[in-house]
Each structure stands twice: as C-alpha cells, then as structure tokens.
Automatic annotation (TrEMBL):
Keyword Ribosomal protein: no
Protein name: 2Fe-2S ferredoxin
Cofactor needs: [2Fe-2S] cluster
Matching Pfam families: Fer2
Record organism: Variovorax ginsengisoli
Keywords for the protein's UniProt record, in alphabetical order: 2Fe-2S, Electron transport, Iron, Iron-sulfur, Metal-binding, Transport
Length: 112
C-alpha cells in the first residue's frame, strides 16, 4: 500500500503526516479519510482547483492528467510543473510526497 507524505501546512496538517491508502485511491480521498481536511469545493468532480497539491516526489507514478484537469490547473494559485488536482491524482504502488499550497482561489472555506 503506497504512503503519502504530507509536508507541513499551517492549517491542514501543521506537523506534516504520513498516511497509507490503497492503490487506485485519489490523493484527495486518502487525505480526507485520514482527517486532513483539504478543500474540495466541487465535491471531487474536477470543477474547481481548491484541492490543488504539488507532488514533490512520486509524480510520475500517478495517472496522467487529462485536458480538463490541465485547463483547471491553469487557474490554480501557485501552479508548478508538478501540480495536480488531488481529486484526480490516483495513487499507484509508489509512495508520494505532496505539498498543499498556502492559498487557493476559494474566497470562503467550505466545511465538508
């Protein structure tokens, strides 16, 4: 089972964390299942960018992004070459390290 290392984020995961999730799970689902309450304003339907993460290690092990995700990422705050929407990034067998950006384009926080 792959491990997701989450780098420290002042709001969502202040000390950082390491969690495990089965291959085939999206990064967003794994985070939420382990009480890392990342924003996901569109309920993981690839219609916003609030669940944007930067994959610091293991990027190539994830499924390829599609055109819809790539278009949405163009609007994400802090976009980097290894940015993904966590709701669309599906784990394979390899471990990944992610960073949750400091900001999102969401002006109001959702409580899911």
């Amino acid at each position: 089972m792959p491990t997701i290392k989450i780098l420290p984020h002042p709001e969502y995961c202040p000390q950082g964390a390491e969690i495990s999730a089965p291959a085939g799970t999206s990064i967003c689902e794994a985070l939420l299942e382990h009480h890392v309450n990342i924003e996901h304003a569109c309920e993981m339907s690839a219609a916003c960018t609030t669940c944007h993460v930067v994959v610091r290690q293991g990027f190539s092990s994830l499924n390829a992004s599609d055109e819809t995700e790539d278009d949405l990422l163009d609007r994400a705050w802090g976009l980097e070459p290894q940015s993904r929407l966590s709701c669309q990034a599906i784990l394979a067998q390899a471990d990944v390290t992610i960073e949750i950006p400091k900001y999102s384009i969401n002006h109001a926080k959702e409580n899911h």
